């Protein structure tokens, strides 16, 4: 099952099972963040063994992860007990798991680096930069043995400023307009999972 959610909350979003942790904003982040809940296994037709495995996993994802876009990057902080792994432009490993540690902030995408790589690409000095981020809940990822299509819960994070930059690039707009756009739409992202 794929659910697509577009969020433009300036404070980011929680991806979780249940409700966002309330309390000290210094610890848990702003309380005005958008909450995106995992779909219930009962809401989709899954084989019983998969539904049971998802139910066991979901109870460990109650406090979820907080995801936000700042002027210099896309960030995440894991609060849940369940392990969360990721891949993306700043991942340390391409072919082995990248684990998000609990209560620690990780930068998933560096916007200045992305914009520099994009500018280099426009000048014929490099490849088109990557901006998509994948999160895997409860299972190691990337995993050279088990493909992502076999993982129980995956989320794809796509910063909309990058999508819009690429769209405008394909339409042939000037670099000045492209760089101006990146600063205007830095707080929006699409989540698919």
UniProtKB/TrEMBL annotation:
UniProt cross-references to SUPFAM superfamilies, sorted A to Z: SMAD/FHA domain
GO biological process, one term: immune system process
An example Gene Ontology CC term for this record: nucleus
Annotated InterPro entries: Interferon_reg_factor-3, SMAD-like_dom_sf, SMAD_FHA_dom_sf
Residues covered by the Interferon regulatory factor-3 domain: 1-170
Transmembrane parts of this sequence: none
GO MF annotation terms: DNA-binding transcription factor activity, RNA polymerase II-specific; RNA polymerase II cis-regulatory region sequence-specific DNA binding
Pfam families: IRF-3
Xref: SMART domains: IRF-3
Superkingdom of source: Eukaryota
PANTHER family xref list: INTERFERON REGULATORY FACTOR, INTERFERON REGULATORY FACTOR 9
Protein name: Interferon regulatory factor 10
Lineage: Eukaryota, Metazoa, Chordata, Craniata, Vertebrata
Gene: IRF10
């Amino acid at each position: 099952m794929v659910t697509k959610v577009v969020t433009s909350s300036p404070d980011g979003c929680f991806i979780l099972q249940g409700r966002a942790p309330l309390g000290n904003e210094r610890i848990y982040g702003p309380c005005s963040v958008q909450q995106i809940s995992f779909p219930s296994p009962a809401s989709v037709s899954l084989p019983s063994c998969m539904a049971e495995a998802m139910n066991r996993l979901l109870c460990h994802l109650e406090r979820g992860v907080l995801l936000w876009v700042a002027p210099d990057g896309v960030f995440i902080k894991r609060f849940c007990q369940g392990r969360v792994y990721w891949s993306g432009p700043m991942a340390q490993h391409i072919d082995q798991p990248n684990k998000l540690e609990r209560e620690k902030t990780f930068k998933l995408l560096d916007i200045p680096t992305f914009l520099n790589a994009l500018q280099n690409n426009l000048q014929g000095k490099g490849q088109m930069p990557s901006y998509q981020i994948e999160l895997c809940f409860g299972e190691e990822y990337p995993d050279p043995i088990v493909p992502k299509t076999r993982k129980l819960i995956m989320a794809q994070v796509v910063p909309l400023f990058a999508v819009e930059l690429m769209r405008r690039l394909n339409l042939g707009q000037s670099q000045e307009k492209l760089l101006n756009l990146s600063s205007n739409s830095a707080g929006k992202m699409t989540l698919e999972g």
